[in-house]
Known about the structure:
Layout: E1 2-8, H1 25-38, E2 45-51, E3 94-98, E4 111-112, E5 115-116, H2 117-122, E6 126-134, H3 139-149, E7 153-162, H4 166-179, E8 182-183
Parallel strand pairs: 1-2, 1-6, 2-3, 6-7, 7-8
Antiparallel strand pairs: 4-5
Amino acid sequence: MSRALIVVDVQNDFCEGGSLPVAGGAAVAAAVTELIRAAPGRWDHVVATRDWHIDPGLHFSAEPDFRDSWPPHCVVGTAGSGFHPDFDHTLAEAVFDKGAYEAAYSGFEGSSGETGLTEWLRTRDVDAVDVVGIATDHCVRATALDAAAEGFATTVLIDYTAAVAEETRAKALEEFEQAGVAVK
């Protein structure tokens, strides 16, 4: 069996200066790259996810509620959809795109070509995953909870995440505990 690192949505639009910035996003981008480079062999596999919106319908709004609707972000073909320059995405074996025509928070809703994240991990005998990225209280949360629901031993490396707000971060941490997701 093996362990994988899932790097969630470390994209320009979610970092300072982007259309939907999360404070500390750029720092997470750099820290994740440093973490991977400093520990070769810690993970058998490293993958990344990214929001990859074409027309996600009601997910985008001119008057977002910041729960179910958001300002346009990570639109395919824009600089905002790209990985932050401080995250060396070449360290990832595969990239899983999500949300082309719908809201998608979890990396497990995405695919790399025709292959979904669950299938990709299972064909490589992955049984444990560590999750990092942006945002702790949204896409990291959904990815970690789905990983646990899929039966992977799941750990969120909390120092390598950035949250939108303290209140929703605290709620995510409670959900992790209830779902058996470790936080380190």
